Every structure is written in structure tokens, then in C-alpha cells.
């Protein structure tokens, strides 16, 4: 892939802070930021993490070109030449830890941890959040659709309605991570090795004298993979009978019609009657595909009504993350360097959920060996180790609510991605990411996975981390 230079894909305030740090000679001090979400989207019980691959390419290609520097000079006359020289020499030299793509993640745990000179860590906030927020949002929407569609075929149809071209291709990739089988977008298919699929549009029918002629011509051109759109004139009276005639023509040549596609009307009723018509014509091998503003709710209702649909084309509502236009992931400073070394920092808020958790942290998923299910996530100080000892897990807001876990495995979720600016994490293939996602889902209880009113998953703090946070809250409250 030809990765464009996204170094200026940042907010001006980041460059202004970089400049002010440089003026104050604090730009080389180290800082630690956490990227995390505060809420799952769509009232879901979990979020599917995505965006890391793009973040890795972005970090690797960070540099200010001559044109970038000229533009900055022109935008802000305060920027001194020596500062611009710092930018000319800029590259990422820090550490990044992150969840793997496809990971099942939850609010209030670090998904990405950046440790770098403040000069570098500040610049990359905007792009990191941009990639993580969009791709995780779409992967989560796709995961909800996948839960309802089960083993049916899911094809991503969203490009024409996506929020521009990048969203179309990275959204198609996010959908694949969560279990979609194919995309209609050829560029996404080529870039990410996603299987591509396509039927035909109403225009193909309108562009012929008759629907029958249109079907015959299409099926003759693509005899092994024809999916005929049957709703241009009248689905039951014209579309399906013509599709059956076309299927018979293919049979006479030893070929098979693949499917019909319904794109309007009552999809349950039309699929049930259509199935009957196809079966009566001895064409039980012809599948029924549906499209038209589908989402997890409509697909679920269609299944409840006994719809005979086994393949779903899902566009607008998937690719736009309908009903939740943005995932609100944030990037917060959790430690900074002073004369003594790294010190944790906190941001207070009247809203208790918005108080940050200080310090560099690890996230462990505590898997009960007996059930092979997760007991919750355990966020600990980076310096702590979680071993085989009985683990006390308590609700950080109500510490009197606790449990002991004995026979468990602690999966360390944050992976080193960059160390001293060098990429140390080999990017997995999309197929591997998808398989990893499926495996991780199996550790989560059904109660958390269900689409409606899911059980809140526990994200607990270790005692040492919780105590440090409480002490800092108290200290700052007394100031
Ligand atoms: N049996 C059904 N139960 C619930 N929802 C359905 C059922 N059949 C179709 N739908 C959904 O209802 C909505 C119908 O939208 P709309 O009224 O715009 O479609 P339409 O009139 O059939 O087709 P057109 O796209 O030609 O306007 C779509 O989201 C569709 O997926
Ligand atoms: O409905 P979506 O989930 O976004 O899926 C993609 C839609 O795009 C196509 O038609 P288009 O919407 O362009 O035209 P139409 O509404 O006239 O079918 C296709 O026929 C689907 O209906
Ligand atoms: O292949 C299709 O049927 C298709 C592709 C994109 C959008 N709507 C339909």
C-alpha cells in the first residue's frame, strides 16, 4: 500500500504545545499517555479493538516534509527556525504498547500506551484516536451484526454511503475482522486481501428491453456466480419467475444460478414465498440474499419471522456506525518526567467516571481455568506481576464488592508494538486477526455478549493502583 504522509494529520494545538515545550526546553521530557474508551458504543457490552495496523504504518512514516515545514511557517509566524529544525529531524523514538486488533476490550482500561518524549507523544494523539475510534466503532457494529447472522454469509456493501474513501476501505477491513465474509469494495479487497463479492444493480435491468433478457445476458456472462436482483418490477410476479427461467437455462449448460437478491418490500414474506417458488422448480440450491438498510435489529426480526435468507448485504448502517456516529476514545496523560524520574499524574472530574487512572499500567484478562471464561480484566501497575496467587478482584468504585479468583491464567493484553522507535511487533495477516478475534470472544460470558442490556464486564484495578489513585484524589482535593 502506498502510505501517504499523515504527519500533519494532527490538531494545531498539538504543534502549538510542541512549540511551547520547545521554547521552555521541556520538549525532551518523557511522558506516558493512555488511549482508552469510557463507554461501549451501541449500548453493547464490549468493543472490538481495531486500527492498530494503520497506526503502525502512520508511526513508521512520520516525518515533516519540506512542504509541511513551509506550510507551518506560513501558518504561524511565531514558530522559530530552530524549532522548525527540530521538526525537520523528527521521527518517533518512543515505545508503544497496544491491544491486538480483534481484541475484545472494555471501558476504562488502556488500549494503547504511548511512552515517548512529550514532543512526540503529543503530536500523535489526533491520528491515533482517529484510527482507533473509527475502526473500533465499525468492528463493534459488525460484531453485533455477526452475532445475529451467525453462519450466514455477510457481505459489506457500504462504500457509497461511507464518510469518504478512507472510511470505506478501513471500515470494510474492520467488518472482516469481526466476521464479515466479503466486501463489495474492490480497493479494500486488493489492499487487505478480503474476498470480494458483487451482484448487479437495478440499472442492469433498466438498461434492457425486458427483465428476462437482462437476467439471461448477465448469467451468460458470469455463469458460475450470478446473483440476480429480482425486485426491479415485481418480485413475485416477474423477478423470481424470470430468475427461475434463467436458472433453467444455466442448468441446460451444466451450470448453476447462485442466488437471487431481494432489495425492497417485506423481506420476510418475499423470501418465504420465493423459497417456495425456487424449491418447487427443483432449485433448492439457489440461495436468497437480502439487502436494503439492514442492521442487526432488522436481521434479527427477519429471522424471527422465519425469513429464508442465508446471505446478507449490509451497507449504510454498518459503515456509518448508525446511531453512534463516533466512538469517544480519549488520550490522557498518566505520567510525566520530573527531576526525580517518572511521576504519575491524574485528572480529576466531578464525574467520577472521568477521573483518569494514573501511572503506566498493564491489563490482564483473568481466565478461570475451570470455566475457560474471563472473570474480568485486572488493571495493575506496570511494576506489578500477577502470578498464581489467589487474586482479590474488587469493584474500584465499590471496593466492598469483591471476589477471590484462585485457579486462573492471566493474559497480558498490551503488546509491545514499538520499542525505542523500532517496530517490534510483526503485523499479523487479516485472517490471523479474525481468528484471534473469534478465539477471544470465546472467553467472554454470553451475558456480556448479548445485544440487549448486557451484563457489565468487570474492569478492576489492583489494590496498589487503586490505592495510588485514591491517595492522589485525596491529595488534590485538599489543595
Ligand atoms: N419483514 C420485515 N420486518 C422488519 N423489517 C423489514 C421487513 N422487511 C423489510 N424490512 C426493513 O424495513 C425497511 C423498509 O424500508 P423502505 O420502506 O425504505 O423499503 P422499501 O419501500 O421496501 O424499498 P425501497 O428501497 O424501494 O424504498 C428496510 O430497512 C428493510 O430492511
Ligand atoms: O441499503 P444498504 O445497507 O446501504 O446496502 C446497500 C444498498 O445499496 C444499493 O442500492 P442503493 O441504496 O444505491 O439504491 P436503492 O435504495 O434504490 O436500492 C443496494 O441495492 C443496497 O440496497
Ligand atoms: O453487489 C451488490 O449487490 C451491491 C454492492 C454495493 C452496494 N449495493 C449492492
UniProtKB/TrEMBL annotation:
It comes from the Bacteria. Pathway: Cofactor biosynthesis; NAD(+) biosynthesis; nicotinate D-ribonucleotide from nicotinate: step 1/1. GO terms for molecular function: nicotinamide phosphoribosyltransferase activity; nicotinate phosphoribosyltransferase activity. GO terms for cellular component: cytosol. SUPFAM superfamilies: Nicotinate/Quinolinate PRTase C-terminal domain-like, Nicotinate/Quinolinate PRTase N-terminal domain-like. Its EC number is 6.3.4.21. The keyword Protease does not apply. Transiently phosphorylated on a His residue during the reaction cycle. Phosphorylation strongly increases the affinity for substrates and increases the rate of nicotinate D-ribonucleotide production. Dephosphorylation regenerates the low-affinity form of the enzyme, leading to product release. It catalyses: 5-phospho-alpha-D-ribose 1-diphosphate + nicotinate + ATP + H2O = nicotinate beta-D-ribonucleotide + ADP + phosphate + diphosphate. Keywords: Glycosyltransferase, Ligase, Phosphoprotein, Pyridine nucleotide biosynthesis, Transferase. CDD domains: NAPRTase_A. The keyword Chloroplast does not apply. Residues 361-469 form the Nicotinate phosphoribosyltransferase C-terminal domain. Residues 8-133 form the Nicotinate phosphoribosyltransferase N-terminal domain. GO terms for biological process: NAD+ biosynthetic process via the salvage pathway. Residues 154-325 form the Nicotinate/nicotinamide phosphoribosyltransferase domain. Catalyzes the first step in the biosynthesis of NAD from nicotinic acid, the ATP-dependent synthesis of beta-nicotinate D-ribonucleotide from nicotinate and 5-phospho-D-ribose 1-phosphate. Belongs to the NAPRTase family. This is Nicotinate phosphoribosyltransferase. It comes from Lentibacillus salicampi.
Amino acid at each position: 500500500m502506498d502510505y501517504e504522509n499523515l504527519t500533519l494529520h494532527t490538531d494545531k494545538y498539538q504543534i502549538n504545545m510542541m512549540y511551547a515545550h520547545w521554547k521552555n526546553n521541556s520538549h525532551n521530557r518523557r511522558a506516558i499517555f493512555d488511549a482508552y474508551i469510557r463507554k461501549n458504543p451501541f449500548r453493547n457490552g464490549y468493543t472490538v479493538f481495531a486500527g492498530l495496523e494503520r497506526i503502525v504504518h502512520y508511526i513508521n512514516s512520520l516525518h515533516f516534509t519540506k512542504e509541511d515545514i513551509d506550510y507551518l511557517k506560513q501558518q504561524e509566524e511565531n514558530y522559530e527556525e530552530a524549532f522548525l529544525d527540530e521538526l525537520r529531524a523528527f521521527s518517533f523514538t518512543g515505545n508503544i504498547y497496544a491491544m491486538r486488533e480483534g481484541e475484545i476490550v472494555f471501558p476504562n482500561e488502556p488500549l494503547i500506551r504511548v511512552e515517548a518524549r512529550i514532543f512526540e507523544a503529543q503530536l500523535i494523539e489526533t491520528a491515533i484516536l482517529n484510527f482507533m475510534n473509527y475502526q473500533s466503532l465499525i468492528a463493534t457494529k459488525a460484531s453485533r451484526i455477526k452475532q445475529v447472522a451467525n453462519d450466514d454469509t455477510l457481505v459489506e456493501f457500504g462504500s457509497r454511503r461511507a464518510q469518504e474513501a478512507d472510511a470505506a476501505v478501513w471500515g470494510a477491513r474492520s467488518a472482516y475482522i469481526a466476521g464479515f465474509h466479503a466486501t463489495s469494495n474492490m480497493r479494500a479487497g486488493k489492499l487487505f486481501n478480503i474476498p470480494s463479492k458483487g451482484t448487479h444493480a437495478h440499472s442492469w435491468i433498466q438498461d434492457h428491453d425486458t427483465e428476462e433478457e437482462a437476467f439471461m445476458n448477465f448469467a451468460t456472462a458470469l455463469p458460475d456466480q450470478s446473483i440476480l436482483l429480482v425486485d426491479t418490477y415485481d418480485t413475485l410476479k416477474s423477478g423470481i419467475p424470470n430468475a427461475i427461467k434463467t436458472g433453467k437455462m444455466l442448468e441446460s449448460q451444466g451450470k448453476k444460478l447462485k442466488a437471487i437478491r431481494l432489495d425492497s418490500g417485506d423481506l420476510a414474506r418475499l423470501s418465504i414465498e420465493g423459497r417456495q417458488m425456487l424449491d418447487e422448480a427443483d432449485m433448492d440450491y439457489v440461495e436468497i440474499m437480502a439487502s436494503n438498510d439492514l442492521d442487526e435489529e432488522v436481521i434479527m426480526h427477519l429471522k424471527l419471522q422465519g425469513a429464508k435468507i442465508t446471505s446478507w448485504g449490509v451497507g449504510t448502517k454498518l459503515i456509518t456506525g448508525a446511531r453512534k456516529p463516533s466512538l469517544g476514545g480519549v488520550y490522557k496523560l498518566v505520567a510525566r518526567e520530573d527531576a526525580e524520574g517518572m511521576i504519575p499524574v491524574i485528572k480529576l472530574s466531578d464525574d467520577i467516571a472521568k477521573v483518569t487512572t494514573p501511572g503506566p499500567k498493564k491489563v490482564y484478562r483473568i481466565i478461570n481455568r475451570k470455566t475457560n471464561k474471563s472473570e474480568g480484566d485486572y488493571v495493575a501497575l506496570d511494576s506489578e506481576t500477577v502470578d498464581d496467587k489467589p487474586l482479590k478482584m474488587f469493584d474500584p468504585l465499590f471496593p466492598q464488592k469483591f471476589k477471590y479468583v484462585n485457579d486462573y491464567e492471566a493474559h497480558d493484553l498490551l503488546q509491545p508494538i514499538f520499542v525505542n522507535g523500532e517496530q517490534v511487533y510483526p503485523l499479523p495477516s487479516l485472517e490471523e486477526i479474525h481468528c484471534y478475534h473469534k478465539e477471544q470472544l470465546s472467553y467472554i460470558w454470553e451475558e456480556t455478549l448479548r445485544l440487549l442490556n448486557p451484563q457489565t464486564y468487570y474492569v478492576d484495578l489492583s489494590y496498589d493502583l487503586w490505592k495510588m489513585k485514591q491517595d492522589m484524589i485525596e491529595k488534590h482535593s485538599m489543595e
